[in-house]
Amino acid sequence: MSPAAQLRLFALLASLSQASLESGMPPSASSSSLKSGAAVPLDLRKWVGKRVLLISAHPDDIEAAVGGTIALLTAQGTEVFYTIATNGDKGCANPLCAGWSSEQIAATRRQEAFNAARVLGVPEKNVLLLDYEDSQLTSYPFAQVKASMIAAIRRFQPQIVMSWWPYPRFEMKPSQGWADLGYHPDHQTHFEAGLSLLMPEIGPSPAQVEEYYMWDFITPSHYIDISSVLDVKIKSWLEHKTQYPNSTAVSTMLTGLGQRVAANTGATNVRFAEGLQIFS
């Protein structure tokens, strides 16, 4: 990361902390830290020989956002790693879970995360679950969450990091609540902790993070054509059976999402896409 990018990172981290202290409301991402303009195709071949770390708040986040990209990366031999912050113990949309304890739900979702990753070519040993309570990430000391992320980056030593877009998207449904704006407090917390991984002093064996991306369905700076692996992405997400028991609905949802992202990028001759916003 260049010195100029490091300065922007310090400024963004400072503004995030100050905004949270003053208002308790989710801040907006600094426009100076994000690329703007038409999305361009991301050539994944440049990541051959590199290590890619995805950090997410919940066990089912990653596959929905960038499952196709992961399938393409592992197919070319790129090493991919996951760090999942919460254990998903509060969420089950399948009647099968009725009466289950939070411990049972968490254990099941843990195995689902391993299964879904395996479909995309990511082995279980590359998946780290931090086991924070679902939807409670903001209740933990930020220093504790950050320390967990630092431990992950020391373990996996990635050059590329990706995480969820953390802030509300008011252009989606401006009259609705935070959830309808694509916002979740767990996403914001793990994103801000993830940014701290780019600090150069995290030793003892700091990874040289070269690029940091947020997955972005609305205004991506880069896109990946996933038309050839959409079926693999769908199969992977279906492993989260506690969340998505209806396979037809999952297929329809992910197909529609891929089409919408492709349209939002302005790409031609791309049926299904995933989008990323680069922080640089």
Automatic annotation (TrEMBL):
Check the record and name the Gene3D superfamilies matching this protein.
LmbE-like
Endpoints of the signal sequence: 1-19
What is any Pfam family matched here? PIG-L
Q: What is this protein called?
A: N-acetylglucosaminylphosphatidylinositol deacetylase
Query: What EC number(s) does this enzyme carry?
Result: 3.5.1.89
Q: Which organism is it from?
A: Acanthamoeba castellanii (strain ATCC 30010 / Neff)
User: Any idea which GO molecular function terms this record carries?
Assistant: N-acetylglucosaminylphosphatidylinositol deacetylase activity
Q: Which family does it belong to?
A: Belongs to the PIGL family.
Q: Which UniProt keywords apply?
A: Signal
